């Protein structure tokens, strides 16, 4: 196993030792590395002095643990030998002395970040801020979290080792081995994606363009998966079109849940770029969208969704309008949590039902519908609670679970790896 020793003269030493090694032999190894005579060494583990005749395993020292070395001759200025020890829960006995000892040299802090398990300055800036900023409560909290993470990883490793020596005819053990192999493949695939396809983890912003409906500027959602062009009742009223609503075309839109179709506006002018085009709309009683430019009008006006140039071409290319960047899209359009609570997601129906089935086409199609908010479910909260118990912050847990679509094992691997 590998242990980490931090000396009084701000040196970090990593040693590969046997669990049954005696403390005296460890001191002999440290004498070579640190040039501190064996007789002047005092080793502390969890705040307690380690006697020469004792063995590491007997003291409870495990792989990845941190041991403090104090020189009896030089001592530690300004603090007792026990000040740099750790409590059983991983927190420091004297957090201020512990912080000062690490902070004295920036090189020492960098080395410590590299040696301590699960700590990386690039992915865990909180610990560096707690040490350099003097936030002792935060430092203690983070040290406890690292301790819990090490314990969780150690238990996982012990389970894996136990499976290696399990009875090959034990069905349950073989099932666990199969699951472990499968999870390893998933983790490798995830790591490869992070390296070679990181954009797959980024948020995809839907396509919006600037339009004018009956002279009123709007942000139009371009959705080639929606069968019909849709306008909400509030948007139609704002554009002065509600007076043209034909209620004979009332019905129900079926998608994720269902939304009432209030009727149809047969024709009204829309302005794309500097050109006016006639457009017809299905009016929905849906508060979670304003205007959706669907496949019917995309076909009618020979539109091209050009993702290479990031523009919408209308009329076979006579007009080109750019898709809006995320900063120009109203924040409530991007509020997926709010949208997912609405019955029809983005507002595009997967099927349009009507009293007059010959007048309004029916069918099914995908429409960019939000898939529901998993964070509202009791199962999601249970996963959060389970990972928080391992020492992770709630915000980080939620972010990891959302990143992996609620997969608890992948989220845990991501958090441990961070």
Automatic annotation (TrEMBL):
Residues 1-76 form the Ubiquitin-like domain. Coiled coil: none annotated. GO terms for cellular component: cytoplasm. The keyword Protease applies. It holds the Pfam family UBA. Residues 335-376 are annotated as: Disordered. Residues 355-376 have a biased composition (Polar residues). It is found in: Cytoplasm. Residues 375-418 form the UBA domain. The keyword Lyase does not apply. One of its GO terms (molecular function) is polyubiquitin modification-dependent protein binding. Keywords: Aspartyl protease, Cytoplasm, Hydrolase, Protease. This is DNA damage-inducible protein 1. It comes from Carnegiea gigantea.
């Amino acid at each position: 196993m590998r242990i980490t020793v931090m000396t009084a003269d701000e040196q970090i030493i990593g040693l590969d030792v046997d669990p049954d090694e005696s403390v005296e032999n460890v001191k002999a190894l440290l004498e070579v590395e640190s040039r501190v005579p064996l007789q002047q060494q005092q080793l502390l583990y969890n705040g307690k002095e380690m006697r020469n005749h004792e063995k590491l395993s007997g003291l409870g020292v495990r792989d990845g643990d941190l041991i403090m070395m104090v020189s009896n001759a030089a001592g530690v200025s300004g603090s007792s030998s026990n000040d740099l020890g750790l409590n059983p829960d991983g927190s420091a006995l004297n957090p201020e002395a512990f912080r000062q000892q690490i902070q004295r040299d920036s090189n020492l802090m960098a080395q410590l970040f590299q040696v301590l398990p699960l700590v990386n300055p690039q992915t865990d800036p909180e610990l560096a801020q707690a040490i350099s900023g003097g936030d002792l409560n935060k430092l203690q909290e983070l040290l406890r979290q690292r301790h819990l993470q090490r314990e969780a990883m150690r238990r996982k490793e012990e389970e894996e080792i136990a499976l290696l020596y399990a009875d090959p005819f034990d069905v349950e053990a073989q099932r666990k081995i199969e699951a472990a192999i499968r999870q390893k493949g998933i983790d490798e695939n995830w790591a490869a994606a992070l390296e070679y396809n990181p954009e797959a983890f980024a948020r995809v912003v839907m396509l919006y363009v600037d339009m004018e409906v009956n002279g009123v500027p709007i942000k139009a959602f371009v959705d080639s998966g929606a069968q019909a062009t849709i306008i909400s009742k509030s948007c139609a009223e704002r554009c002065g079109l509600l007076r043209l609503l034909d209620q004979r075309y009332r019905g129900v839109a079926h998608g994720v849940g269902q939304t009432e179709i209030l009727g149809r506006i047969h024709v009204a002018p829309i302005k794309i770029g500097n050109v006016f085009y006639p457009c017809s709309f299905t009016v929905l009683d849906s508060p979670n969208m304003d205007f959706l430019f669907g496949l019917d009008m995309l076909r009618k006006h020979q539109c091209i969704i050009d993702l290479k140039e990031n523009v919408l071409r209308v009329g076979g290319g006579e007009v080109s309008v750019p898709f809006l960047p995320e900063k120009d899209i109203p924040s409530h359009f991007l509020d997926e949590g709010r949208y997912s609570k609405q019955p029809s997601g983005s507002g595009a129906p997967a099927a349009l039902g009507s009293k007059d089935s010959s007048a309004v086409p029916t069918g099914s199609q995908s429409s960019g519908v939000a898939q529901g908010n998993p964070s509202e479910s009791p199962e999601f909260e249970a996963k959060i609670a389970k990972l928080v118990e391992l020492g992770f912050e709630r915000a980080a847990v939620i972010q990891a679970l959302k990143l992996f679509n609620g997969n608890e094992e992948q989220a845990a691997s991501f958090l441990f790896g961070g």
